Amino acid sequence: MTARISSGANDPKHWTSRIIIGDTRGQSHPPVWLVDSYAEFRKQVTHPAFPCYFGSIAEKKKEMFYTYVEGRDLSTLPVTMRQFARLSAGIEDERNNLAVFFQPEADVEEHEKFRDFCWSVLQFLHNHDDDSEVLNQPLPDDPSWEFSFAGMEMFAVGCGPSYKRRRSRNLGPGMMMLFQPRSVFMDPMTGNPISLEARQRVRERLLKWDEGVPAHPDTGIYGDPKNREWKQYFLPDNDLPEMGKCPFLSRASSRQASTSFGNATAKKEPLPVDEVEGRAGTLALLEALERAASDFPDKVALRFLPDGENVETELTYGALAQWSRQVGASLQTKAVSGDRVVLALPGGPEYIAAFLGCAYAGLVAVPVFSPDEGNNEHHLRLIGIIEDCTPAAVIVPDGIAERNLMPLLDVPHLTVPPYRPGQEPTGLARKPGIAEDALLFLQYTSGSTGSPKGVMVTHGCLRANAATIHTATGMQAASVMVTWLPLYHDMGLIGCILSPLIAGAEIVLMPTRAFVTRPVRWLRAISRYRGTISGGPDFCLQALL
Question: Which of 125, 172, 113 is nearest to 478 (CA)?
């Protein structure tokens, strides 16, 4: 339980009277950590030399509202933000700011993880915004875009102890986010934006406060055609400009993606992915993987926990894309474009590389379970699938027992080649830019009521499905998916592996058996790796009781 202390919440001039939690304003017993964090925040922003006089004046004139998040529980934040927006709509509070304090961590996390979490907060709020105009907002790459909630545009600023060089962004022992309505930056007398001279004075004060660290190259002025507001929200602690795409997934872009999919399927001729890539918010599988490998090659794509506890394999987006191309080049020597290849592997990195390798090679993957994991009933199902899809090859685990090869009939057996860092394959025929109606994989039914039946899933189908999942879950590049679901099931494969890869997210994967034998491993992995999305059938929740 978090210790709390009494305060002057009933005093209208006391800072605790301006704490908002949900629909409630004022709190008489704030947690001790919040009191300490606020004290350090106030000490800094009211210092005569503090560079941002917008925030300094707001604090001195008691034009600041506050809220807090304990244990990174964001559940009340959307209601709090709506209350802040309602208050700011009144003349008395129209120039108010909102400071969100996050409970300090025991250890200061890496700066990139701090930035990822900040974006996940904005994404969570956006996904819970019920404003009627949310789908009509401009997209983040538009110079007129600003984060908006409950119909109020506001500039978001991330601050935290991971800032070592930029002192102006380190305002206390824990992470903070400041939300400043656009009205704060407008002259109340003229209704015009604050003058360039005033902004220049802020820059000069910033240079002194940050002890000579120059303004980041991404800082700019709202409305400037070359400026992108999102780049200034959670600045890097170095001086390198942001070169990647905005990690924020706008619901407006998802609606445009859905429209693009509808138009694509209505055409008589297949619409190549590269024709719609700029219009749709969701890339096709290989385009997304190549984009991620190019834009952030060192970002972790997959952490594999074979025992459900410890990481054995960690693959970056650059490594996963290269390994998948190596697998694709190897497969092209064994099969021709359009052939089916059965993936009879245990869930793990090899399964994912084999699936992506099939896509690179233009082959149709058929996800199934490893023969090592099955009983006689499973083996009969596997025989039925192989007889139905007539594959050119079956990919099996290295070192599989001879007795378990019986269900694979006379189909050639292959294994996944190990990853060879830095070795780019030659002769890979298939390149990204595959038509929307090209077949990607066959998803077979369980066969519990009859023979297994294969569902044909195209590149376009997967892309549309991923767009829907991204919208429903708020999945984006800052997300962390934690999963134990079997990769031969559609929920495990599409929902927990392919959709996160398309979003550029991080995946933490453990074998199904690791969860079944000790379900608490699932919750521990979510906690340890800061999982933001996870799930499964209802029985998995029962198993935790």
Answer: 113
If you search the block for the tokens 């170095």, which residue do you land on? 238
Q: Are strands 97-102 and 64-69 parallel, antiparallel or unpaired?
A: parallel
Ramachandran region of residue 269, left (φ > 0), alpha (ψ -120 to 50) or beta?
beta
3-state SS of 441-465 is EEEECCCCCCCCCEEEEEHHHHHHH
End-to-end CA distance of the chain: 22
Count, residues in the chain: 545
Please state the pTM of the whole predicted model.
0.53
Domains of the chain (ranges; CATH) run 15-233 (no CATH), 265-542 (3.40.50.12780)
Q: Which residue has the tokens 């090899």?
A: 350
Per DSSP, helices labelled H in 176-271 are 196-209, 230-233, 251-266
Best-predicted range by mean pLDDT among 7-21, 47-61, 207-221? 207-221
- The helix/strand count (H/E) of the chain reads as 18, 17
Query: What is the DSSP code (8-state) at residue 138?
Result: P
Contact present, 502 and 288 (Cβ < 8 Å): yes
Burial classification of residue 146, based on how many CB atoms lie within 10 Å of its CB (0-12 exposed, 13-18 middle, 19 or more buried): buried
Does 330 or 90 have the greater pLDDT score? 330
Q: What is the pLDDT of residues 130-168, one digit of tens each?
A: 888 888 888 887 888 899 999 999 999 999 999 999 999
The two beta strands, 393-395 and 413-414, are: parallel
* C-beta neighbour count of 217 within 10 angstroms: 13
Residue 219 forms beta bridges with which residues?
none
Instruction: Assess whether pLDDT exceeds 50 at residue 258.
Output: no
Q: Are 437 and 460 in contact (CB under 8 A)?
A: yes
Mean pLDDT of 213-237: 85
| Residue 471: Cβ-neighbour burial (10 angstroms; 0-12, 13-18, 19+) | buried
Residues 289/501, Cβ–Cβ less than 8 Å? yes
Find where tokens 């807090």 sit. Answer: 68
Q: Is the pLDDT of residue 12 over 90?
A: no
Q: CA–CA separation, 428 vs 53, rounded Å? A: 58
- As a whole number of angstroms, the distance between CA 361 and CA 223 comes to 45
**Could you report the per-residue pLDDT of 85-112, keeping only the tens digit for each?**
998 887 565 568 899 999 998 888 889 8
CA dihedral 519, 520, 523, 525 (to 10 degrees): -90
**Strand-pair category, 393-395 with 148-149:** unpaired
DSSP letter string, 185-198: GB-TTT-SBPPHHH
Report how far residue 68's alpha carbon sits from residue 74's, in angstroms, rounded to the nearest whole number. 9
Half-sphere exposure of 391 (CA within 13 A, CB side): 32
- Locate 8 and state its tokens: 């002057």
Cα dihedral: 509, 514, 520, 522 (round 10): 10
pLDDT confidence band for 277 (50 / 70 / 90): very low
CA atoms within a 13 Å half-sphere pointing along the CA-CB vector of 335:
30
